[in-house]
Specification:
- The structure holds two protein chains of two kinds.
- Chain A is an all-alpha fold.
- In chain A, helix 5 packs parallel to helix 9.
- Chain A starts with 5 loop residues before the first helix and ends with a helix.
- By secondary structure, chain B is an all-alpha fold.
- Chain B has two domains: about 50 residues, no CATH class; about 210 residues, MetI-like fold (Orthogonal Bundle).
- Chain B has 15 helices and no strands.
- The chains are: A mainly alpha, B mainly alpha.
- At the A-B interface, helix 2, helix 3, helix 5, helix 6 and helix 7 of A face helix 2, helix 5, helix 6, helix 7 and helix 8 of B.
Chain lengths: ~325, ~300
């Protein structure tokens, strides 16, 4: 059947075939109008407007009066934005590192031919299915000193016990990290476990023959071979961290004071209740910058590698 | 058969593979340690859910005593009824139920429209790659990484100037837009993995763009559509940000309503009602998660891997 396919192509007279091919391709363009509209309308024109408005003095409504980098000056001299940037570094690095370490530990333990693997996987993963609003509310209660963990320990008789990170502005961010781990480490486990199972059986046998302890095989042999899964888990979390908004709204509302502000919250506040669109757009542009840099950098590396491979071939 | 098609598309999906570690002894201190670690970890994930359920079945007097872990002494389902019908947000005291139906009204059309569009995109990108198609696709993939906050304000302005801001139409379009990058990727990769002969045979028979899509591609797309539906239903149901901005007060989805109910500061905090409301809000995605099982993880993995 495969061999028969090209034949009509060769036989059919070009004059008859051409118009139909073209109309079909026209249909393809028509069919993908939504894609073209979103790609161009949202990701080119939309971003262009965001960047443009960040150079204006827009307040409640967009304005066309350009003010240069004044919005960026104000942004970087504002306490709230600096707290937000500081917070996203702490929250991002801590929750990603903890999720990776905890997720890999879970994956390794799950890989020991244990009973009830499916049940355990369901338990580790279910928080990921829920809204971040739900996760945020749950942990807001768990960490509430009058209701949650602290209260339980007090009732057991240990009255000097203290565990209420959300109340204190210096520790509130760590409360968010706990919720982040609860939500995200199960997915990390699932992705890394799949990666572990993708490592060739021969590798395990060879390592065993060489008498390498199991823990070293997991750490120094399997882990470096799972670059794909590690990258997947990392990207999934990094994208989540930059977007984190719901969790903060539900858990702390950005407080106490401004202690748990993050860039995503800052932008929404500025275009909403603070009625300072240009400020919000400057902050949004700052959020876009690292994404563009990372993608640009990654793209450049891929392109360079591909070219070197072609040169070799 | 449908499972086989998916199983080929990457290491991430190799759930069925046997554990690779060495065969352990039947019972040893080491085994005990392994199970101890796993059980304690499982408790970390389960305890909050347990506390939520138990508390939602207690009366407020009992909750005030503070024995969070103990099962309810006087079992009551009143908090659940209150959460559904009477819980207040500001002056409205209709409970969560309006939010639930709003979420249904938002989720159903958004899921259908976004998946139909993404399937056509993926099909065109795999078999009808007209000049420039990959440029638009590249933009979409880039869009998958762009934080929502970067483009949300231009979308607000666009919705306002077309007069659909604060309507169901606005929120449905927004969900369709933000679902498009991942879904298109998903469908493109799926169609690209199908044998090209299938497509060529249809072409030889004289089928054009739409006929090939409807008669050949759609019947083949059941597995990937299942993944897409799971991904979209949970994603859209759980959305908060777009709902609060675009849908308008009368269409607010359940997540927004829940947050308003819980954060309402007037009166005493009815923890039992609030926790019942929280469980109800999480119920739909949780049900999908437990029913769909491995398909769910497949969706996450497929959505993130190449994205």
């Amino acid at each position: 059947m495969t061999g028969a396919v090209p034949a009509p192509d060769a036989v059919a007279p070009a004059a008859v075939r051409r118009p139909r091919r073209t109309t079909s391709y026209l249909q393809a363009v028509l069919g993908t109008v939504p894609m073209i509209a979103v790609a161009v309308g949202v990701y080119i024109i939309g971003i262009a407007f965001t960047v443009y408005w960040s150079f204006t003095d827009s307040k409640i409504f967009p304005s066309d009066r350009l003010v240069g980098f004044a919005q960026y000056d104000r942004l970087w001299s504002s306490d709230r934005w600096q707290t937000a940037v500081h917070n996203i570094w702490i929250f991002g690095s801590l929750s990603i590192v903890c999720n990776m370490v905890f997720g890999y530990l879970l994956a390794v333990f799950m890989d020991q031919r244990i009973r009830q693997e499916d049940l355990l996987r369901s338990i580790f993963l279910y928080p990921f299915a829920m809204s971040l609003i739900v996760t945020g509310l749950i942990w807001q209660w768990m960490l509430d000193p009058n209701l949650g963990i602290e209260n339980v320990i007090h009732n057991l008789g240990w009255t000097s016990f203290h565990f209420s990170p959300l109340v204190d502005k210096d520790t509130a961010i760590y409360g968010l990290v706990i919720a982040g781990i609860w939500q995200g480490s199960g997915v990390t486990m699932a992705i890394l476990l799949a990666g572990l199972r993708g490592v060739d059986d021969e590798i395990w046998k060879a390592a065993r023959v060489d008498g390498i302890p199991t823990w070293r095989t997991y750490l120094f042999i399997a882990l470096p071979m799972m670059r794909g899964s590690l990258a997947t888990a990392f990207v999934l979390q990094a994208v989540g961290v930059i977007r984190v908004y719901d969790l903060i709204i539900a858990m702390t509302g950005g407080g106490p004071g401004i202690a748990t502000n993050m860039p995503a919250v800052y932008v929404i506040d500025m275009i909403g209740s603070s009625q300072n669109v240009a400020q919000g757009m400057a902050a949004a542009t700052m959020m876009l910058l690292p994404v563009v840099l990372v993608i640009g950098f990654g793209g450049a590396i891929t392109w360079y590698r591909r070219r070197r491979q072609e040169e070799r071939a | 058969m449908s499972g086989a098609v998916l199983a080929d598309s990457g290491a991430v999906e190799r759930w069925g593979v046997e554990p690779a570690g060495r065969k352990p002894a039947r019972f040893s201190a080491g085994r005990l340690g392994i199970y101890a670690f796993l059980v304690i970890s499982a408790l970390f994930f389960l305890v909050p859910l347990y506390i939520m359920i138990v508390t939602s079945l207690k009366e407020m007097d009992e909750i005030r005593l503070g024995y969070l872990f103990s099962p309810p002494q006087h079992l009551t389902f009143q908090p659940w009824a209150d959460a559904w019908l009477h819980a207040c947000t500001g002056r409205d005291c209709n409970g969560l139920s309006p939010g639930f139906f709003n979420s249904v009204k938002i989720t159903l059309p958004s899921v259908i429209i976004s998946i139909v569009i993404a399937a056509i995109n993926g099909y065109a990108l795999s078999f009808w790659r007209y000049r420039g198609a990959n440029f638009f696709f590249g933009l979409l993939v880039f869009g998958a990484f762009v934080p929502y906050q970067v483009v949300v304000y231009p979308l607000i302005i666009a919705a306002r100037s077309t007069g659909i801001f604060s309507t169901l139409a606005a929120i449905i379009i927004v969900h369709t837009i933000f679902g498009m990058p991942i879904l298109t990727l998903l469908f493109r990769n799926f169609y690209a993995s199908l044998p090209i002969e299938l497509f060529k045979a249809a072409r030889v028979d004289g089928a054009g763009f739409w006929r090939t899509f409807v008669y050949i591609m759609i019947p083949m797309s059941v597995p990937i559509t299942t993944v897409a539906v799971i991904l979209q239903v949970t994603g859209i149901w759980n959305d908060f940000l777009f709902g609060i901005i675009f849908s308008g007060r009368s269409n607010w989805p359940m997540t927004v309503q829940l947050n308003n109910i819980v954060q309402t500061t007037t009166g005493t905090r009815a923890y039992n009602v609030n926790m019942a409301a929280t469980i109800i809000t999480a119920a739909i995605p949780l049900a999908i998660y437990f029913i769909s099982g491995r398909w769910f993880v497949r969706g996450i993995a497929a959505g993130s891997v190449k994205g």
